[in-house]
Amino acid sequence: MYGNTNLTEEEAKRMNSVQEDPQKLAEFEDRIARGEKIEPGDWMPSEYRKQLIRMIEQHAHSEIVGALPEGTWITRAPNFKRKLALIAKVQDEVGHGQLLYSAAETLGKTREEMLNDLLSGKSKYSNIFNYPAETWADIAVIGFLVDGAAIVNQTINSKGSYGPYCRALERICYEESFHLKQGHDNVVYLATGSKVQRDMLQAAINRWYRPLLHFFGPTDKQSAHSEKLMKWKVKLASNDDMRNQFLDMYVPKILELGITFPDPNLRKNADGVWEFSDPDWEEFKRVISGDGPCNAERIAVRKYAEEAGRWVRQALLNPTEKYTVPLA
Ligand code: BYC
Fold first, then answer.
1. How far apart are CA 172 and CA 161, in angstroms?
2. What is the C-alpha separation between 62 and 66, in angstroms, rounded?
3. Which of 15, 35, 133, 217 is the least buried, fewest Cβ under 10 Å from its Cβ?
4. What residue's CA is closest to ligand 1, atom 47?
5. Backbone φ, ψ for residue 216 (5° rounding)
6. Is 313 helix (H, G, I), strand (E, B) or coil?
């Protein structure tokens, strides 16, 4: 999936020692224009490498942190069938993290460096996982709408220019489509259930509406990286376009269940563009800078996992060594 060239940072620097050679850059851009995939050992501008590491790493972190709000509901799932589906989904999300860390490693940053940057707050992860999953309906909404939003983004970007990332995204999208089905089933079940269940679902939609709008990133005018990423076909649609596609696909599906969105200005205009109230971009900035409702808790859980799992990593690295940590 990744090719067999995992570069160290040192090697990556060396490979790009003639990084902005105009001829190499022109050849690289021609390849991208022809729709060719760039592979780990190929020449690439250092900025392309840097941007990919940033984006894939953030994506990988989002998967493993994203498993946390759902993970807390495994023990509280309403029945065995739902519990089994949720366990499988959470396991998939962590697996997606593994695929994405491997894809980012091909660019020269080690997994350890990436995880350290997550824990120190240097590296971002998706805004949306810094909100609490207060009720079982939040799990339904995450499964249907957060996974739905992720599929919109990932299906588009799986046609991008960097081979290892695209192949990881393709596989992730297959698995996400099962997540979406369980989320949809869960949402429909609650929407067609008792008044208590419908109210619970409505309250969850009210909570997740704005974070979902934020999920696709700042508006195109505010987006710092889109222009470059789109030029190099890492991103194949802008933040606003992806957000619009998501609203187009999912708003009608929620409305047809008799559930509403907490925004009187949400509507599709004659040009097919969805309009909505300002989703409070200041809140978005706060949340992605570490000051959301659950940022501290999410990082604390990850730190605990790192520390408590250290002996496992050590044991795996030294298969001949006898266990020094008691197993019970
Ligand atoms: N959250 O220039 P912009 C899942 C940051 S997990 C946090 O537009 P870009 C799932 C951005 O990083 C799937 N930060 O950025 C898992 C940049 O900051 P820096 C999650 C955000 O990269 C478990 C600054 O804002 N999906 O589905 O061109 C259970 C300026 O933004 C966000 C991905 O990770 C955000 N939402 O575009 C269930 C998709 N948005 O780095 C489900 C991969 C922006 O300069 N990522 N920022 O400090 C992408 O497609 C792109 O990175 C984005 C943003 C569209 C998100």
1. 17
2. 5
3. 35
4. 217
5. -85, 5
6. helix
In this predicted model, what pLDDT tens digit does every residue of 174-218 receive, in sequence order? Answer: 999 999 999 999 999 999 999 999 999 999 999 999 999 999 999
Question: Which residue, chain included where needed, has tokens 């559930």?
Answer: 259
Rounded Cα gap, residues 99 and 285, in angstroms? 28
Q: Alpha helices, DSSP H only, in 22-127?
A: 22-33, 46-71, 80-105, 111-120
Query: Two tokens at 236?
Result: 């194949």
Substitution candidate for ligand 1 out of 58, 142, 286 with most atoms within 8 A of CB: 58
Could you tell me which of 40, 52, 45, 47 has the C-alpha nearest to residue 8? 40
Q: Nearest Cα to 192, choosing from 256, 266, 105, 131?
A: 256
Q: Angle 80-105/163-191 helices, nearest 10 degrees? A: 160
The dihedral built from the CA positions of residue 72, 144, 203 and 192, taken in this order, carries a sign that is: negative
* Residue 20: pLDDT band with limits 50, 70, 90: confident
> What is the pTM (predicted TM-score) of this model?
0.93
User: What residue ranges define each of the domains in the chain, with the CATH number in brackets?
Assistant: 9-308 (1.20.1260.10)
Q: How far is CA 299 from CA 61, 94, 120, 282, 286, in A?
A: 11, 15, 9, 22, 16
CA dihedral defined by 109, 111, 114, 120, rounded to 10 degrees?
-140
> Which atom of ligand 1 is nearest the CA belonging to 126?
1
Pick from 225, 283, 291 the residue to mutate for probing ligand 1's pocket: most ligand atoms within 8 Å of its CB: 225
Query: Which run of H or of E encompasses 10?
Result: helix 9-15
* Ligand 1 atom closest to 157 (CA): 50
Tell me the C-alpha distance between 267 and 249, whole Å.
13
CB 164 within 8 A of CB 153: no
